[in-house]
Write a structure and sequence with these properties.
34 helices, Rossmann fold, alpha/beta, eight-stranded mixed sheet, 3 domains
Length: 857
Amino acid sequence: MRTATAAGHLVGAVGTRAAQAARGFPAPIRWRGLAGVFAYGLMLAAAEVLVIAPSFGYLGFSVSVPTGWTLLVVLGSYALAASRLPTALDRPSQVIYWLLFLLVVAPTHVTALFLDAPPRPSPVPMVLAVSVAFAGLSLVYRLRLPALNLATGSWRRFSVVVGVLTAVAAAIVAADFGLSFTLHSFDDVYRVRASYHQAMDTASRFGPYAVSWISAVLAPAYVITGLVRRRVPTLVIGIVLQVAVFSLTGFRTALLSSLLIVALTVASWRKVTTMVGHRLAWAAAACGGLAVAVDSIRGTVFVTSLLVRRLALVAGLNTYHYYEYFDDRPKYLFAEHVPAGLVAAPHPLDPAHLIGSVYYGSASVSANANIWADGFANLGFPGVFVITAALGVFMFTYDTVAQYRSRRVAGLLLAVPAFALCNSALSTTLLTHGMLLALVLLVVVPATDRGAGRPGRHRPVGPTSVVHLSTVHPWHDNRILRKECRSLARNGYDVTLIAVDDTGTGADGGGAVNGVREVDGVRVLTIPRKRRLRRVLTGVPGAIGRARRHRADVYHVHDPELAIGIPLLRVGGATVIYDAHEDLPAQIHGKHYLPRGTRPVLSWLARAFCWFVSATSSHVIAATPTVAERFAPRRTTVIYNYPELPDGPGPAPAALAGQPTGQPTGQPTGQPTERVAVYVGGITRERGARVMVDAMAMVPDAELGGLVLVGPCGEPGLLDELRTRPGWARVDYRGPLEPPLARRVVDSSAIGLAVLQPTPAYVTIPPTKLFEYMAAGLPVVASDFPIVRTIVAGAGCGLLVDPTDAAAVARAIRELAGDPVRAAAMGRRGADAVRERFTWASQEVRIARLYADLAGR
């Protein structure tokens, strides 16, 4: 607990010294801080003398007695470096100072004490160079930051950027290393590492980068977001990503980094006025001392080796190895850090493997070192200061970008990649270990921790500006305008609908004013209907651009062709919802006009399209559970297309609005006549148009007045074909009507028809019109599909038929027309079932709750 608390002080108390940070002069470390860092140094010395050197002398650890002069200089150098440590984390990059001191500067000084054995070079120049470079690095936090307010990020934007980068990196890893996921024990990591390094030989150049970025930056970003915002699923994603990296690479740090972030974040929730650095030093000294005590008592080396040797002393030893080897040998002159061919490497191996071959007996050993050891390898002593200056530039840049952002998040985001500075070159840390990527993510870090409330805390409704967008559906579409848009407007959202104008009239008979209609609190903007190719090439980009000009909080798109614009709509942090009205892959199999050989390929592409929508959108709304199965289940919500109950009295008496003419009239005539059957919806073969027309030829005039068809016919030549069939003389084709007029036609009819054909798109999906007929109190004649049977037979509201058999449809119509008492009872039962189970009011609650949840993201 003390360790976590001290670590929390390091990262969490980041906004408490604002005045001092503005001046750029943090308070100097006090005597308690110096005592803490010297206690830490004594612990390292005790660990090396008592445990490490006796057991790991073959690696180069020594217990040579230093001279008095060496001891004096090393202690003075140690004190100089310690005196420059900040006591308060006024800037996020100051976490680097403590990491470098505890894991590089202190171990370098301690190991140097016991390596003063001629004829080897004296370690004194090395420790002085490291100490002076570290002290010079402290000049960075004494520089005044430029007053640049670059804080334009938001949590939504941050989540989108992290999600996209994670998806790209995961795709690269999957392509190079596969998707296997196996949990390994810690004892088996060396075999896993060997397999990983072998796989790296055949991987692309980006594969290892992607693995490191996930482990060091992207997975910690999920952990940080989950902890700071108290979102358990996000936290779990980050941990699972780290476990996956461990499964692939065998690197324990992949697991330990998540624990580090958890400890730092939990500790940072404490309200403190200053970060007392000596607490961290005392805690580290206590942990190391306990490890030495345990191993000394038990006669083992495991705990000390893990906590002290591997984390700290190896860095100090390798620093001396680099210093010694390159003291009088050719330097690399950064040949490993510039494009091939610019600088010739003086050695056949890179520095890490060269040191491994010389000091550890094998070229397969990579003796990774810290930034200053890399400086010795490239330029000697000048390299130490050149690399320090480069690191200082990065830290100053990071602090400049972070100064108006959440400092807690900024500090946590830098912690894990900065850890690599202790065992990697600066260029490797910036690129491979993702410190530059952390800077990129910092740009979209929100200004504050706002929204990081605990679970259950009240959140505001959130986004008030909503744009619904469709380039296919008419603006008066029942589901889009009458249900979803009006429901959102009733729940306090500012709703705009951009959709197709195919009537030229306004809602409820009113026209547009300056191109804008106002319908029940919904602002309606119309776009002209275009033919398919022109619509895709020009209509879709124009509609997306028009929607973006509204700068809405939420975009709700309704057509597959608009999905390509989802990433663009999400730029700026907006939430984008995709509304899947139909099962697109199954629908393709029912498109008879498509060549049969192309349907499987197109259906596969449709499934890939569903994956793309799930990956790019904020959420998916599906009209049925079958449609929802095509998308990611955890980001998909089913909103059934149930009917709205009329506000007025119940269904009107069955009467016919107009004589059958076989020609589209565009409006009901209002003239009473015999009872009729009605179909409302798209006029297509798949929806039973031919079967319904043929059935009317078998229903006598004396039993039923005819059939009213309401809806557009989108199949070329179908109307001409239907007009040649015998039953067409008894059809009154009204064409497309606006929903209020279509409802009046349904209310004045006697029987509702829903004989959709057995295509994959319809077999598992109940037709929307079925519920609308039931709500109007009409008995129904419907296709005998399992999902439809459950509804119709369960409610006892109609008859089920083979939808491909016109004679069966005719018999069912005649049966209902010949027994009006039974038909009326069926109609009442259907209306009762809708009121009890199938009303839109239940779905309005669901969509309002979904929007409220998305608003809190």
